[in-house]
Amino acid sequence: MALIGYARVSSADQTTALQHDALKAAGCERIFEDTASGARADRPGLAAALAFARAGDVLVVWKLDRLGRSLSHLIVTVADLAGRDVGFRSVTEAIDTTTAGGRLVFHLFGALGQFERDLIRERTHAGLAAAAARGRKGGRKPVISPPLLAKARRMIEQGLTVREAAGRLRVGKSTLYAALRA
């Protein structure tokens, strides 16, 4: 069993020294690092750490937010690790999925995250329904108003191409084509 560390900072002017020290103190033999926003999916250090981990190993992070872009991403990542028989440990939050208690805490986090997503979805749907009942239509306002579309049609009837008409009206050619079709 090997303890594999992963440290991440968001910008080049930050340092992983604190995380590195904590991971070394936790017993990590190898530490992978990234300097990238947590929102980025392409983190070469994380990819290398995940590829390096073998069955029986444990991936260790200083804090949960160093690993996942979001709670759902964190849950998926840890579930993938568990599927490969790789444990997960967070030093700061004292979560260790190699123990029954650690798995319980992690699954509670996952359940709370799913509950939060469901609440957001319900509120969004309720808000959209209420707006629709008041006659509000969602989405972006059309760039080409009915009078502008009528003007474009007259220009095209007088011999201009759609591209020329779009240029004179200062709208995109594809936008004008879409409006003419609708």
From TrEMBL:
Keywords, alphabetical: DNA integration, DNA invertase, DNA recombination, DNA-binding
Signal peptide per UniProt: none
Stored PROSITE patterns: RECOMBINASES_1 (PS00397), RECOMBINASES_2 (PS00398), RECOMBINASES_3 (PS51736)
Gene Ontology process terms (BP): DNA integration
InterPro entries documented for this protein: Homeodomain-like_sf, Recombinase_CS, Resolv_N, Resolvase-like_N_sf, SSR_resolvase
Species of the source: Novosphingobium colocasiae
Protein name in the entry: Invertase
Protein family according to the UniProt entry: Belongs to the site-specific recombinase resolvase family.
Active-site residues from the entry: 10
Pfam families membership: Resolvase (PF00239)
Lineage: Bacteria, Pseudomonadati, Pseudomonadota, Alphaproteobacteria, Sphingomonadales
Resolvase/invertase-type recombinase catalytic domain sequence ranges: 2-135
Gene Ontology terms for molecular function: DNA binding; DNA strand exchange activity
Spans traversing the lipid bilayer: none
